[in-house]
Amino acid sequence: MNPVTGKYRDIITDKMGALTDWNSRAGSGYYDSAEATFNEYLTHALFCLYVQETYPAEVARLVIDRREDLMVQRDFPRFRAFNQAFLARFAKEARRQPLSDSYPDIVDLLGMD
Question: Is 74 helix (H, G, I), strand (E, B) or coil?
Answer without folding.
Answer: coil
